[in-house]
C-alpha cells in the first residue's frame, strides 16, 4: 500500500505519534500483535502512534461490544444456567440439576410442538425455495425492465408488512363462512374447507401464509444472483449447442447452488422460529395441532411462569439452530470447491 | 460480439416466451391480491361482508366508518405514535452505534479485533427467543416493564447493522482517511466528515430496514407491554381479534392503518430496502 519510498515499519521510537500514513500500519508489526500484556497496557497508556490507533479502534467498537454483551451474551449464559433451576412457589430458586431437561424432554406436548414445527417447516421451506427459484427465473427472462421491477415489487410486498397483519389478512381469506377462498370453492362446486379450524388443514393453511410471506425475499436473492452470472457462459453454452433446458441444468443451477443452500437455511431458521402468525390466528389450536416450539416457550414462560422449563426450551432452540448453522458451513464448504 | 451481453439475453426468446411473462404476472397478481382484498373489506359494512353472492367492490368507496370505529374502540392513534417513536429511536441508535463499530472494525486493528467481530457475527446464530426470559427478568428488575425504554432495550442495535456498516466502510479508500489525518483531523472528525458522508447509501438502507423491522415486531412488545396506552401497533392489531368472533371489517381497517405507513416507506425507498435484503441474504 505504501509508496516504494516509505519504509515499511519504522521502529516505534522513531515515530513520536505525529500524523502519518496509517495505511502502511494496517497490519501492525509482529511484536506488537498478539494478546501480549504490553499491548493491553498500551491501550491505557498510549505511548506511540500505533498505540493511539489501537485505542481509537477499540473506542469505536466499544459501544456495540458492551450492548451486545448485555443484551445477548449475558442473557444467553443466564438462559443456560436458568435451565438448571426451578422456581419455588415462594419466589426463590432451587438447583435441580438435569431434572427440568428430563421433564421437558419426556413431555409429549413438547414433542408434539416439535413435530408440528417440523411438519410446518417441511411443508413451507421446499415450496418457498422452489417457487422463488421459478419466479426469479421467470422475472429474469422478462425483457421490459419496467414490468420486471413492477412484478418484483409485488412479489416482495408481503415481506414489508408485519407478520401479524399478514396473518390476519389470511385469517379473513380463510374464514369458513364468509372467507373468499370458500366462496371460490363453492363457486366451482367444491365443498368449503375449515382451513384453520380442522386438525388436518391448519398446518397446510399456515404453511401457505409462510410461503406467501417469504417468497419475495428469496426471489430477490435469487434474482440478484442470476443477474451476476456473466452472459458469456450462456454464449459458450449456445455455441456448444446446448438447449435452453440444458443451459438451465448445467449452467444456471450449478452457479446458483450457494444461494439455494443459503436461502434454504434461512428459511429453515425462519420457519423454525415461527410465532407471530400462529399467535395472531390459531394460538396453537385446534387441540394443539398448530402449537409450535416458540408458542410453547412463550406460554410456558409468560402464561404459566415456569421460567426454568422455558429456559430448557430456549436452550433446545439455540442448540437446534446452531446445528443447522454448522451443517450449513459444512455444505457451503463442499459447494464452493467445485 | 461487442461488450458483454447481460445474462438471459443471449439465447433467443423461446417459443413460450409470452407464457413466461403471463405466468410471472399472474403470480404477482395472486401475491398482491390479499392486500387488495384487505383494502376493499375495510370499506365495507358488516352486511356487505356477509352478502351472498360475493361482491368484490364495496357499495360506497368512501365509507370510512370502519376506520372511525377503530379509533373509537382502541387508542389506535396512540399505538401508531408509539410504534413510530420506538421504530425511529431504534433506527437512529442502530445507525449511530453500527457505523461507529463498523468504522472500528473496518479501518483499525486492535487487540481482540478478530475475536470481537467473530463474536458479534456469532450472535446472528442466537435466536432472540433463547434469551427472552433473562431479558424479561432484567427489564422487570430495572423497572422498565411498560416503558418505551423497555420495548427498545433489545432493539437499539442489530448485528446486521454492524455487519452492513463494516462492509460499506471497508471499501472507502484508506487514502482519504490518511489525507484527513495529515490535515490534522481528529479520529472522530475523520469519522464524522470523511467516513459518514461516503457511506450515505448504506446509512439510508440501515435506517429504513431497521425502522421496518422494529415497526413489525410482535414477540418482545408482547412480553414487556401490559397497559393499553403503551401498546405498539402490532399489539393493537392482535387486540381486535379473539377466539370466538372477529369483526373483519374492523380488523382489516386496523390492518390497513398499520400497514399504510410502512408501505409508503417501502414504496418510496424500495431501492434501499432491496439492497438491505440482498446484503442480509449475503450475510448467510
In short:
The complex is a heterodimer of chains A (338) and B (284). Chain A is mostly helical and 338 residues long.
Distance between the termini of chain B: 37 Å
From the spread of the alpha carbons, the general shape of chain A counts as flat
Quickly give the CATH architecture of the largest domain in chain B.
Orthogonal Bundle
Number of helices of chain A: 13
Counting structural domains of chain B, the number is 2
The largest interface is: A-B, 119 and 110 residues
What level of helicity do the residues of chain A show?
A: 55-70%
The named CATH superfamily of the largest domain in chain B: MetI-like
Give a description of the structure.
The complex is a heterodimer of chains A (338) and B (284). Chain A has 338 residues and is mainly α. Chain A has helices at residues 37-44, 49-82, 99-105, 108-141, 145-160, 163-174, 180-187, 202-227, 231-239, 244-272, 276-280, 293-302, 307-336; strands at residues 85-87, 93-95. Chain A has 2 domains: 12-82, no CATH class; 101-336, MetI-like (MetI-like fold). Chain A is flat and about 65 Å long. Chain B folds into 2 domains: 18-63, no CATH class; 75-282, MetI-like (MetI-like fold, Orthogonal Bundle). Chain B has helices at 17-41, 46-49, 65-73, 76-107, 113-122, 132-141, 148-152, 159-170, 174-182, 187-198, 200-215, 219-224, 233-238, 248-268, 270-282. The longest helix of chain B is centred in the N-terminal third of the chain and has 32 residues, at 76-107. Classes of the chains: A mainly alpha (338), B mainly alpha (284). At the A-B interface, helix 1, helix 2, helix 4, helix 5 and helix 6 of A face helix 1, helix 4, helix 5, helix 6 and helix 9 of B.
Amino acid at each position: 500500500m505504501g509508496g516504494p519510498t516509505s519504509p515499511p515499519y519504522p521502529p516505534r521510537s522513531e515515530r513520536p505519534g505525529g500524523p502519518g500514513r496509517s495505511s502502511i500500519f494496517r497490519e501492525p508489526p509482529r511484536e506488537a500483535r498478539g494478546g501480549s500484556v504490553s499491548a493491553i497496557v498500551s491501550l491505557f497508556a498510549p505511548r506511540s502512534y500505533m498505540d493511539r490507533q489501537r485505542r481509537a479502534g477499540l473506542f469505536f467498537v466499544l459501544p456495540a461490544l458492551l450492548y451486545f454483551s448485555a443484551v445477548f451474551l449475558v442473557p444467553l449464559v443466564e438462559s443456560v444456567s436458568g435451565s438448571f433451576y426451578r422456581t419455588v412457589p415462594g419466589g426463590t430458586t432451587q438447583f435441580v440439576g438435569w431434572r427440568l431437561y428430563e421433564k421437558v424432554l419426556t413431555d409429549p406436548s413438547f414433542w408434539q410442538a416439535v413435530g408440528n414445527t417440523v411438519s410446518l417447516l417441511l411443508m413451507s421451506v421446499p415450496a418457498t425455495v422452489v417457487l422463488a427459484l421459478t419466479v426469479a427465473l421467470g422475472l429474469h427472462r422478462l425483457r421490459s425492465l419496467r414490468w420486471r421491477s413492477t412484478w418484483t415489487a409485488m412479489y416482495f410486498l408481503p415481506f414489508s408488512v408485519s407478520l401479524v397483519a399478514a396473518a390476519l389478512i389470511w385469517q379473513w381469506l380463510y374464514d369458513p363462512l364468509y372467507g373468499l377462498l370458500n366462496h371460490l370453492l363453492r363457486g366451482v362446486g367444491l365443498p368449503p374447507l375449515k382451513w384453520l379450524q380442522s386438525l388436518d388443514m391448519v398446518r397446510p393453511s399456515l404453511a401457505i401464509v409462510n410461503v406467501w410471506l417469504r417468497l419475495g425475499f428469496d426471489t430477490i436473492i435469487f434474482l440478484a444472483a442470476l443477474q451476476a452470472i456473466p452472459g458469456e457462459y450462456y454464449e459458450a453454452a449456445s455455441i456448444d449447442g446446448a438447449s435452453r433446458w440444458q443451459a438451465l441444468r448445467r449452467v444456471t443451477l450449478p452457479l446458483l447452488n450457494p444461494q439455494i443452500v443459503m436461502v434454504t437455511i434461512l428459511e429453515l431458521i425462519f420457519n423454525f422460529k415461527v410465532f407471530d402468525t400462529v399467535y395472531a390466528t390459531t394460538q396453537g389450536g385446534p387441540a394443539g395441532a398448530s402449537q409450535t416450539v416458540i408458542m410453547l416457550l412463550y406460554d410456558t414462560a409468560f402464561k404459566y411462569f415456569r421460567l426454568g422449563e422455558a429456559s430448557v426450551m430456549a436452550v433446545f432452540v439455540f442448540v437446534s439452530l446452531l446445528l443447522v448453522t454448522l451443517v450449513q458451513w459444512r455444505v457451503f464448504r463442499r459447494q464452493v470447491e467445485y | 460480439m461487442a461488450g458483454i451481453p447481460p445474462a438471459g439475453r443471449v439465447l433467443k426468446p423461446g417459443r413460450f416466451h409470452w407464457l413466461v411473462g403471463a405466468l410471472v404476472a399472474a403470480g404477482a397478481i395472486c401475491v398482491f391480491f390479499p392486500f387488495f382484498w384487505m383494502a376493499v373489506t375495510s370499506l365495507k359494512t358488516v352486511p356487505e361482508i356477509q352478502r351472498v353472492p360475493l361482491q368484490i367492490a364495496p357499495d360506497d368507496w368512501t365509507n370510512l366508518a370502519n376506520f372511525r370505529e377503530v379509533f373509537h374502540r382502541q387508542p389506535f392513534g396512540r399505538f401508531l405514535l408509539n410504534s413510530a417513536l420506538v421504530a425511529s429511536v431504534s433506527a437512529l441508535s442502530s445507525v449511530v452505534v453500527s457505523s461507529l463499530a463498523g468504522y472500528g472494525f473496518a479501518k483499525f486493528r486492535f487487540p481482540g479485533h478478530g475475536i470481537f467481530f467473530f463474536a458479534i457475527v456469532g450472535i446472528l446464530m442466537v435466536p432472540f427467543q433463547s434469551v427472552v426470559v433473562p431479558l424479561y427478568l432484567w427489564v422487570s428488575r430495572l423497572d422498565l416493564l411498560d416503558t418505551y425504554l423497555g420495548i427498545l432495550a433489545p432493539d437499539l442495535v442489530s448485528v446486521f447493522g454492524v455487519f452492513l456498516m463494516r462492509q460499506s466502510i471497508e471499501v472507502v479508500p484508506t487514502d482519504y482517511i490518511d489525507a484527513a489525518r495529515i490535515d490534522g483531523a481528529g479520529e472522530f472528525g475523520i469519522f464524522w466528515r470523511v467516513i459518514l458522508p461516503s457511506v450515505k447509501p448504506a446509512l439510508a438502507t440501515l435506517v429504513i430496514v431497521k425502522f421496518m423491522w422494529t415497526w413489525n415486531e410482535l414477540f418482545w412488545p408482547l412480553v414487556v407491554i401490559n397497559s393499553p396506552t403503551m401498546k405498539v401497533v402490532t399489539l393493537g392489531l392482535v387486540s381486535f381479534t379473539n377466539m370466538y368472533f372477529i369483526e373483519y371489517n374492523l380488523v382489516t381497517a386496523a390492518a390497513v392503518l398499520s400497514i399504510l405507513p410502512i408501505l409508503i416507506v417501502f414504496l418510496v425507498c424500495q431501492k434501499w430496502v432491496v439492497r438491505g435484503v440482498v446484503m442480509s441474504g449475503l450475510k448467510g
